[in-house]
Write a structure and sequence with these properties.
By secondary structure, the chain is of the alpha+beta class. 43% of the residues lie in helices and 19% in strands.
Length: 336
């Protein structure tokens, strides 16, 4: 079966596959790459409507990535629960990962409400559907194409879409860049992803610490502040609820997703909370007198804290302590 699918793709289809692969690997934004890809498919497959959607992590809802030609009413249908219940789940399309034409459905299309009430009244008579499944088996999106012509897409058209489906899945996967980055970090860490829309999702590793999940709004605000001004990475500490700390390292991905790697220091940090507060003030460039005012203590107390910090970190100067704190993520989200 696989060899017949490959042999069905002729020079024009192979050229489309090559161009789409190059586009998907380019440095353009996800939106631009997705738009170029859909345009390429429509140039090869004469269907005036195309919708590329992704699944929103954690919800199963479908979100539009590119819409060429579909009305708002049809987009609502295609991304709605009824369409999924009628056409996706019953025919196990996510298990297939290969396009299915309307005339290949094992039932009369007009027996399906979405076809009879949405597609036919809009003059759409044929098309193809393809679940987008990543190489590691995750169902992450969907491609819908349809036309007012009576002719179904050719075998070659289906073969081109089928061979490109994993590439499209990688392109629209909201967590693709986050998962790739997470795979390069400490494999002992718990990895979280903060999507551009503010949703926090687990990526890999152990269960997400409750101290982080229960304070999502605060964590989002901290990440926004720590990565402000296009800063690519930052490290900070988060209380673990028992007097200890989680060490957090945040990294900004190209698509706007933030990856947070969370570990628990072992052995635990020797610095007290007050020393961490002083160290965080030092990293902000504040003098001893300013720190004393902020903390409500005398300057002599701040000097003593600084001496303890230098001793515990085994560094000779305040500057070296700040460098060590930034490198090791020993700063608090808020000082004092």
């Amino acid at each position: 079966m696989k060899s017949r699918r490959i042999s069905a793709v002729r020079d024009g289809g192979l050229a489309t596959i090559a161009r789409v692969a190059a586009t998907a690997a380019s440095g353009a934004s996800v939106q631009d790459r997705a738009q170029q890809t859909v345009d390429e498919l429509q140039a090869l497959i004469p269907m005036e409507n195309a919708l590329l959607s992704c699944l929103v992590p954690g919800t199963g809802a479908r979100s539009v990535v590119v819409n060429n030609g579909y009305s708002e009413r049809l987009v609502t249908c295609l991304n709605g629960g009824d369409y999924h219940a009628e056409l996706v789940e019953p025919f196990a399309l996510p298990n297939n990962g290969w396009p299915v034409r309307e005339n290949e459905l094992p039932v009369d299309p007009l027996s399906l409400r979405c076809v009879a009430e949405y597609f036919r009244p809009a003059g759409l008579r044929d098309g193809l559907m393809c679940a987008l499944v990543t190489g590691d088996g995750r169902y992450v999106g969907f491609l819908d194409m349809s036309s007012g012509d009576a002719g179904a897409p050719s075998d070659e058209a289906c073969a081109v879409v089928g061979h490109l489906a994993p590439t499209l899945a990688t392109l629209v996967d909201p967590l693709q860049s986050a998962r790739r980055l997470a795979s390069t970090l400490d494999d002992r860490a718990t990895m979280l992803g903060l999507l551009p829309d503010g949703q926090l999702v687990a990526l890999q590793g152990g269960p997400v610490p409750e101290e982080l999940m229960s304070r999502e709004p605060e964590l989002r605000a901290v990440l926004a502040r720590m990565l402000a001004g296009d800063r690519p990475a930052a490290g900070f500490l988060w209380p673990d609820g028992t007097g200890g700390w989680h060490r957090c390292r945040a990294f900004r991905c190209r698509d706007g997703t933030t990856v947070v790697a969370v570990t628990t220091p072992n052995p635990p940090l020797e610095l007290t909370r007050r020393e961490l507060e002083v160290l965080t003030h030092l990293a902000q460039g504040r003098a001893n007198a300013e720190i004393a005012d902020d903390l409500g203590v005398v300057v002599r107390t701040v000097k003593a804290h600084v001496e303890h910090i230098l001793e515990k970190l085994a560094v000779p100067t305040r500057t070296a302590a700040v460098v060590r704190a930034i490198e090791d993520g020993l700063l608090l989200p808020k000082a004092g």
